[in-house]
C-alpha cells in the first residue's frame, strides 16, 4: 500500500510542477518504506547435507538472548518492532548460522545448517604428549576432580515433589565395512537391491541400515507424600526384524542407562571403571588440556586414559564447568584391547543440564557398539548398534493426577503405540537421515523376497529353538530331540507349540517321547490362556507321563512340559539309575497385582515310582504296609518378585532382558491326604534369592541362596534333595561333585557364590594375557538335617543322610572366554570336593565344560 501511495504521489508531483514540499514527502515515504522492509524477513531453513527442511529452529533477532521464533516447518516469516539488521539461526546438534539482513535480501532467505558434533564444542586447543607428575597432587586435573567429587551430584529428579519429562529413543543397527567383494557374494543373489540403500561411512566403506526402532516415552514421578513412578511407551515405530523375538530381545539386552558419577558403569552387565568415580585415579591418568566453551559455558577439558590398556576401562574427555564443577558432558571410548565377547568397540557420549549445585538432569545419551561375531580386526565386517536418547520437557512440582501412575489395559494394546508420519515429524529432535528413511522402504521390499524370509527363519529357529512349520505352529525344542539314559536307552523326543506372534495371549504345547530300550511312549501336553495383559491374569492346565530325574532343583516349579536337564544325559560320570516314573496332572492360576510381582497358585496330582526298581528303591512304609508308588496331591502358593526386570513382550510368554535384577521366590506347599487318593498331609516352605552384583573394577559376583523345610514326615520321592550334576556339562545351581540323592533333607540351606573377574588377574601375566582369558572363582555350600522318622519311613532310609555334621562345600575355579577372535563362548571349570571325603563312590575332583553365550 505504501509503495502504491508513493507512486501516486510521484505522478501528482509531476502534475504540480515538482513542488519541493512534495519532494520532501516522497523522500520521507521512501525512507519509511525501506525501514519497514527491514522489520520483516522470510525464507527457508534446510539441512546442508540433504537439503531437507528443518523445523524446531530458533531464530534470534539482532543480539537478542531469547529466540523471537521457533519454526514449525522449514519455511519462516519473522517480524519485529525494531529494525532487523541480523538474524541468528540455531538448532540442536547443528552449527549456528548468522546472516546480515538488508532490504535487498530480507525475502527468500535460504539458510543451510550443517550438522555438528554432539555438544558443539568450540575453541578446543589440544596438547600433545602426556605430562608426568611426581604424584597426583601435582596434577592440576586432580585438584579439579577433587572438587567434582566434593560436590558429587545426584539425579535432580529425586529432589522435587513431582516431576515429568519426555524421552525420545532411537535404536539403529547398521552393517558396517561393506565392500564390493562382500556385496558380490552368492548369498546376496536376488537381494543385491539392498545395497542401493547403503551410505558411505567415515572409513570410506559402505554402511547398510538393517534395523531402526523409534520410541517415545512419557515419564511421571513423585517423591512426596509417597514415592511412585511410571514410564509409559506412547509411540513406537519399528523397521527391520520387529517380528523376530531374538533380534528384539538382543536389542533390549544391549543397553543400560548410566550415571557418570557412579564409580562403576554397567555395560553388558560387566563393570567398567567410571572416569568421574571417586577412585578413578587408581585406573586412569588425567591431563588438563584447556579451558573451552561448551554450549555457552566455560569448561575445563580433561583428557583421561587408562593406566593399562588391557583392562575394562575407557579413554576420552571430560568437560567440567569452571564455576560449579559440574560435569557438562563426557565422551567414553573403549581401548582397542577391549575384552568383551562379540564387541569390537564401545563409544558413549553424555550431556547433562545442571539446575543447581547439587543435582544434574540427563540431557542426551548416545551409545554406540561395534559388534562382530568373529574378528576384532579394524575394518572387519561388523554391526554398528547405536542408541540415542533425548530427554526434554522437564516439569517439576506441578500437580499430577494419581491416575497417571496406574497402568491401563489400553497401554498394552499394539494399536496404542501406532502413530502417523506427522506425529513422528513433530516429536523427532532431529530429522532422519536419508539412509535411515530408506530402511522402511528396504524392509518392505525384503519381506517380499523368499530368500530373505528363509534367512530370517533360520536365525529365528536357532535363537528360539523352535522351527515354524505351519502358520501358528512351531516344532521343537529342536535341541531336545535326542537323549539317552539308563532306563530308556536312546530316546527321541518331538514337540510342538502354537505361535502366532510375540504377544499371543494363549499357547498350547505338547511333546511325545519314545525310549528304544523300555519301548514306552511318554508324553506331555499343556495349555495356557491370559485374560488380561494389565495384571497378567492367566490360567493353565496340563498332564504328562515321563521318566524324570527328581531333585534336579530345589525351588522347582510345577509345570508339565519343561524337561529336567539331567534326565537325558549321555556324557556323564557313572550311570544315572536314580530316575523316577512320574504321572502328573496340574492346573494353575497366576496374576500380577503389581508390576514384576506375581502370585501363582498350582494344584498338582501325581504318582511317583522308581523307573528301575531293581537298582533304585523308592519303596516306603505307610500304615504298616510296604508301598512302591507315592500318590501325592498338593497345592502350592508362590510369590515371585523380579524388581527392575525388563521384558520385551506383553504376551503369555515373555523374554526377560538380561540385567542385574534379582529374582526372589517364596513358596508354600500343602499336601492333602485323601484328595485323589493322596497318601500324605504335609507342609513345605521354600525361599530363593538370585542376584548378580557388580563389584567395581573387580568384576561381577553372582549369588544364589536357597532355604526350605518340610514340616512333616514324607517319603524320599517328596523330600528335598540337594541337587547334583553328574554330567560333564555346566548346570547352574547344582553341586558338581555330589551324587544323585547323596544328601536328602527335611530342612536345608544352600549358598552358591560365583565371581567373574573379567580377566583382571590373567591380564598381568605376560603371553597369557594375549589369549584374553577370564578367570572365575566359585564356592558352594549346603547344610541340612534329616529326622530319624524321615529315614525310617523309607525301606532303604539308612542309606540317606543330610549334611548336618558339617556344612558340605565344594570350590574351584574356571576359565571362560575361551575361543578365537570375537567368538569366545567356551568355559572350563575345575571342581574340588571340600569334605565328606570318606564316602564310597564319590568324586573328589571333576572337570566341567560347556558353552556360555554372553558378553
TrEMBL record:
Q: Does the keyword Signal apply?
A: yes
Q: Which domain of life is it from?
A: Bacteria
Q: Which UniProt keywords apply?
A: Signal
One Pfam entry for this protein is DUF5686
Residue span of the signal peptide, if any? 1-37
UniProt protein name: Carboxypeptidase-like regulatory domain-containing protein
Amino acid at each position: 500500500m505504501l509503495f502504491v501511495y508513493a507512486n501516486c504521489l510521484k505522478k501528482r508531483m509531476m502534475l504540480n510542477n515538482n513542488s519541493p514540499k512534495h519532494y520532501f514527502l516522497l523522500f520521507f515515504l521512501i525512507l519509511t518504506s525501506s525501514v519497514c522492509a527491514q522489520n520483516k524477513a522470510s525464507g527457508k531453513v534446510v539441512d546442508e547435507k540433504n537439503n531437507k527442511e528443518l523445523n524446531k529452529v530458533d531464530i534470534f533477532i539482532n543480539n537478542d538472548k531469547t529466540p523471537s521464533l521457533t519454526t514449525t516447518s522449514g519455511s519462516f516469516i519473522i517480524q519485529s518492532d525494531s529494525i532487523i539488521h541480523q538474524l541468528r539461526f540455531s538448532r540442536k546438534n547443528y552449527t549456528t548460522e548468522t546472516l546480515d539482513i538488508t532490504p535487498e535480501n530480507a525475502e527468500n532467505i535460504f539458510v543451510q545448517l550443517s550438522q555438528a558434533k554432539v555438544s558443539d564444542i568450540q575453541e578446543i586447543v589440544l596438547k600433545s604428549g602426556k605430562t608426568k607428575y611426581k604424584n597426583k597432587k601435582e596434577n592440576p586435573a586432580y585438584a579439579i576432580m577433587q572438587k567434582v567429587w566434593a560436590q558429587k551430584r545426584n539425579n535432580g529428579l529425586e529432589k522435587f515433589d513431582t516431576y515429568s519429562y519426555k524421552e525420545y529413543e532411537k535404536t539403529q543397527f547398521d552393517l558396517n565395512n561393506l565392500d564390493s567383494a562382500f556385496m558380490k557374494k552368492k548369498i546376496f543373489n536376488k537381494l543385491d537391491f539392498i545395497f542401493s540403500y547403503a551410505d558411505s561411512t567415515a572409513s570410506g566403506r559402505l554402511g547398510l541400515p538393517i534395523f531402526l526402532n523409534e520410541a517415545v516415552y512419557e515419564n511421571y514421578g513423585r517423591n512426596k507424600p509417597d514415592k511412585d513412578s511410571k514410564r509409559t511407551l506412547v509411540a513406537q515405530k519399528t523397521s527391520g526384524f520387529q517380528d523376530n523375538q531374538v533380534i528384539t530381545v538382543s536389542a533390549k539386552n544391549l543397553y543400560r542407562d548410566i550415571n557418570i558419577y557412579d564409580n562403576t558403569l554397567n555395560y553388558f552387565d560387566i563393570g567398567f571403571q567410571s572416569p568421574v568415580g571417586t577412585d578413578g585415579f587408581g585406573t586412569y591418568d588425567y591431563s588438563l588440556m584447556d579451558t573451552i566453551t561448551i554450549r555457552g559455558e566455560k569448561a575445563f577439558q580433561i583428557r583421561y586414559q587408562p593406566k593399562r590398556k588391557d583392562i575394562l576401562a575407557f579413554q576420552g574427555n571430560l568437560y567440567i564447568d569452571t564455576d560449579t564443577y559440574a560435569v557438562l558432558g563426557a565422551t567414553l571410548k573403549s581401548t582397542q584391547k577391549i575384552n568383551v565377547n562379540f564387541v569390537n568397540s564401545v563409544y558413549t557420549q553424555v550431556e547433562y543440564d545442571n539446575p543447581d549445585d547439587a543435582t544434574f538432569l540427563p540431557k542426551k545419551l548416545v551409545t554406540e557398539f561395534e559388534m562382530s561375531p568373529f574378528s576384532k580386526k579394524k575394518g572387519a565386517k561388523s554391526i554398528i548398534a547405536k542408541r540415542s536418547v533425548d530427554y526434554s520437557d522437564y516439569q517439576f512440582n506441578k500437580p499430577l493426577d494419581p491416575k497417571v501412575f496406574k497402568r491401563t489395559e489400553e497401554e498394552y494394546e499394539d494399536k496404542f503405540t501406532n502413530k502417523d508420519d506427522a506425529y513422528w515429524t513433530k516429536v523427532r529432535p532431529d530429522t532422519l537421515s536419508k539412509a535411515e528413511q530408506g530402511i522402511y522402504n528396504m524392509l518392505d521390499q525384503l519381506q517380499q523376497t523368499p530368500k530373505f524370509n528363509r534367512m530370517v527363519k533360520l536365525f529365528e529357529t536357532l535363537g528360539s529353538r523352535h522351527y515354524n512349520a505351519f502358520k501358528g505352529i512351531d516344532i521343537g525344542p529342536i535341541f531336545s530331540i535326542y537323549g539317552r539314559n539308563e532306563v530308556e536307552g536312546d530316546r527321541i523326543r518331538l514337540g510342538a507349540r502354537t505361535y502366532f506372534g510375540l504377544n499371543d495371549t494363549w499357547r498350547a504345547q505338547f511333546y511325545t517321547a519314545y525310549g528304544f530300550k523300555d519301548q514306552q511312549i511318554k508324553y506331555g501336553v499343556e495349555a495356557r490362556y491370559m485374560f488380561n495383559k494389565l495384571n497378567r491374569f492367566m490360567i493353565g492346565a496340563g498332564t504328562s507321563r515321563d521318566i524324570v530325574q527328581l531333585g534336579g532343583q530345589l525351588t522347582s516349579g510345577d509345570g508339565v512340559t519343561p524337561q529336567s536337564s539331567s534326565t537325558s544325559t549321555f556324557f556323564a560320570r557313572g550311570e544315572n539309575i536314580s530316575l523316577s516314573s512320574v504321572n502328573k496332572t496340574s492346573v494353575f492360576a497366576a496374576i500380577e497385582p503389581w508390576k514384576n510381582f506375581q502370585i501363582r497358585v498350582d494344584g498338582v496330582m501325581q504318582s511317583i515310582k522308581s523307573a528301575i526298581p531293581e537298582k533304585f528303591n523308592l519303596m516306603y512304609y505307610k500304615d504298616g504296609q510296604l508301598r512302591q508308588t507315592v500318590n501325592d496331591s498338593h497345592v502350592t502358593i508362590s510369590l515371585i518378585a523380579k524388581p527392575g526386570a525388563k521384558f520385551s513382550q506383553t504376551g503369555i510368554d515373555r523374554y526377560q532382558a538380561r540385567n542385574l535384577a534379582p529374582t526372589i521366590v517364596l513358596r508354600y506347599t500343602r499336601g492333602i491326604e485323601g484328595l485323589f487318593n493322596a497318601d500324605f498331609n504335609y507342609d513345605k516352605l521354600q525361599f530363593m534369592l538370585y542376584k548378580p552384583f557388580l563389584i567395581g573394577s573387580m568384576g561381577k559376583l553372582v549369588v544364589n541362596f536357597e532355604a526350605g523345610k518340610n514340616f512333616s514326615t514324607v517319603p524320599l520321592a517328596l523330600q528335598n534333595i540337594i541337587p547334583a550334576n553328574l554330567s560333564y556339562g555346566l548346570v547352574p545351581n547344582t553341586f558338581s561333585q555330589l551324587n544323585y540323592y547323596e544328601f536328602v533333607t527335611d530342612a536345608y540351606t544352600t549358598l552358591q557364590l560365583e565371581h567373574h573377574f573379567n580377566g583382571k588377574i590373567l591380564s598381568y601375566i605376560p603371553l597369557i594375557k594375549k589369549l584374553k582369558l577370564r578367570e572365575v572363582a566359585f564356592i558352594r555350600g549346603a547344610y541340612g538335617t534329616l529326622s530319624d522318622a524321615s529315614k525310617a519311613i523309607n525301606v532303604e532310609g539308612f542309606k540317606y543322610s543330610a549334611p548336618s555334621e558339617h556344612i558340605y562345600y565344594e570350590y574351584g575355579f574356571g576359565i571362560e572366554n575361551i575361543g578365537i577372535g570375537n567368538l569366545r563362548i567356551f568355559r572350563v571349570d575345575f571342581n574340588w570336593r571340600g569334605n565328606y571325603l570318606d564316602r564310597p563312590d564319590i568324586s573328589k575332583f571333576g572337570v566341567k565344560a560347556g558353552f556360555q553365550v554372553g558378553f
